[in-house]
Design goal:
The chain is mostly helical. It contains 14 helices and two strands.
Length: 303
């Protein structure tokens, strides 16, 4: 009797162990991701709640719900200019990155293995190097005593240094150089997956290289372009170091506004308002680009 009970107990424990191993183990492995995601959502929710509060001059958050922070941010031209500058320079820098990055990615995907390996190493070294160091390197090029101004003065083309920094051009140049590697990797990864037989078939039917690129290669690379645009645009829109260094306090973006309001002025609700507005715009941009890409890909597949 005792032996039968032990066997039955052992069988039950084994069945339960197998059940949890087969059915519950995936949920157990996903527990760390759920915990991290919970902290992330909690931070977003806290940001959302604080943005509807008020703070006194000492930074103490008061009770009550108000839309005053959002009304102030949208109606006041001084504060709204932060958002306008961020969107303006992010859009143009993303376009510049696309125009520079696509030819580079195309050349990278069509190069020989040795050349491709060298270019990839250069991109990786640039990507893994310090972002602040890269911005200081750009300052040495476009600064008042930088390479460009000194070369122009040496050639007697200008008498005084051209103001390339501390404005939209300097910040846009830094954003373009800092985010170029993202666009190149996104596009080249898609170009590598395009079957060369499509291009060979179009060429055999009498299409020129330009027509093959426009009607075959470019439409098939749309997913890579879209992913690169999303990453680069969001990266530039939330930039903090580039406008702080290359803007010199004269051209600041929303991230600089959030830092000043929270760390210097202790106005955490107003800073949360700016951060949440930036988050909503980022989500909206991702949604619009994804929907546009889906329509373009469907049109390409139908044609």
């Amino acid at each position: 009797m005792h032996t039968c009970f032990r066997r039955q107990l052992h069988k039950t424990v084994r069945n339960l162990t197998d059940y949890f191993r087969e059915r519950r183990m995936p949920y157990t492995f996903s527990l760390p991701a759920v915990i991290v995601l919970s902290f992330f959502l909690l931070a977003i929710w806290s940001l959302f709640v604080i943005s509807f509060r008020q703070a006194d001059k000492f930074g103490v958050i008061q009770q009550g719900v108000t839309l005053g922070q959002y009304i102030k941010f949208v109606r006041d031209p001084f504060y709204f200019s932060y958002l306008y500058r961020s969107l303006h320079v992010s859009l143009f820098s993303t376009l510049a990155v696309l125009l520079i990055g696509y030819p580079f990615a195309f050349f990278l995907s069509r190069s020989k293995e040795s050349v491709r390996r060298i270019l990839t190493i250069i991109l990786l070294v640039n990507f893994l190097s310090s972002y602040v160091m890269r911005m200081y390197a750009i300052m040495l090029v476009i600064g008042n005593n930088g390479v460009i101004n000194r070369t122009l003065q040496y050639l007697n083309l200008i008498d005084h240094p051209i103001q390339l920094m501390y404005g939209e051009f300097g910040v846009g140049t830094g954003l373009t150089a800092g985010a170029l590697v993202f666009m190149v990797f996104c596009i080249s990864s898609v170009l590598d997956q395009i079957d060369r037989r499509y291009e060979e078939a179009a060429t055999s039917l009498g299409a020129s290289r330009y027509r093959v690129f426009v009607e075959v290669t470019l439409p098939l690379s749309i997913p890579g372009i879209a992913s690169g645009i999303i990453i680069v645009f969001l990266f530039n829109l939330c930039a903090f170091v580039t406008p702080a260094l290359l803007g010199g306090g004269r051209f600041e973006m929303v991230s600089n506004f959030v830092y000043e309001q929270s760390m210097e002025l202790l106005n955490f609700p107003f800073a949360a308002c700016g951060a949440f507005v930036l988050l909503v715009i980022s989500l909206f941009a991702v949604f619009v680009i994804n929907r546009s890409t889906e329509k373009m890909v469907r049109g390409t597949q139908r044609s």
